[in-house]
Amino acid sequence: MKEEIKEILLRKYTERELARMRYVYTCLLYEGSKFLLMYVIFSLFQMDREYLMAIAVLLSIRNFSGGIHLSTYVGCFLFTFFFLLGALCASRTIVPPPPVQNTVLLLGAFILFCVGPVTSDNRPKLTGRQERIYKSISCAVTFLYFLLFLCEKTFTYRNLMFWVIVFQILQLIAAKICKKGDHHEKNSTKCTRVPL
Which of 57, 71, 63 lies closest to 121, judged by CA? Predict the structure, then answer.
């Protein structure tokens, strides 16, 4: 049955197109299930709104700056869970004054431009143009957060947004340090996934 389905699909799509579809389907399944599972966990602790805000801020930067990538579903889930839990806990316990937050965000935009993006080993190396675009976008998004923080001294989730950005910058620096000598820099291995 599986072979018959594949044969039917191959009449309409190439192997490469099928591989891309499998990759997209798998990504959506894994990311969607992690998102829902974490939502349930954080909801149990009445942190569901904070979780959603943290995810929104994280995705607005991480999609362009990259960061630490783990190869297993469980590893990725645990890393993301503890990353978000750390940001949520820090936001509830450590409240730097607005001038400190503003300074850190401005410095963070500069760091993101210098350090990012850090892509997964399972993806092809970015071209120079793509890298410049991603750097610029992640830096610009962080700079927009800086402007928001500069214009508004107090607003809901300000401290949470601050800590998510700080954690993202720290893990990006850690990812860049760990990436030294990887296959992208050596160009010695082929990418294991089909580029989108």
Answer: 71
Contact criterion met (CB below 8 Å) for 105 and 57: no
Place of tokens 């000598």: 181
Q: Give the C-alpha separation, 42 to 55, whole Å.
A: 12
Q: What is the pTM of this model?
A: 0.79
* Cβ neighbours of residue 179 closer than 8 Å, sequence gap 6 or more: 118, 185
Alpha-carbon span 60 to 113, nearest angstrom: 15
d(Cα 110, Cα 166) in Å, to the nearest integer?
Answer: 13
Detail the DSSP E strand segments found in 7-134.
Answer: none
Average pLDDT, the chain: 83
Phi and psi at residue 130, to the nearest 5° = -60, -45
State pLDDT tens for residues 134-189: 888 988 999 999 999 989 888 889 999 999 999 999 999 988 888 754 444 344 33
| 3 state DSSP class of 66 | strand
Per-residue pLDDT of 16-53, as tens digits, reads 777 777 878 888 898 899 999 999 999 999 999 999 99
Distance CA 157, CA 127 (A): 36
Sign of the alpha-carbon dihedral angle for 61, 74, 37, 21: positive
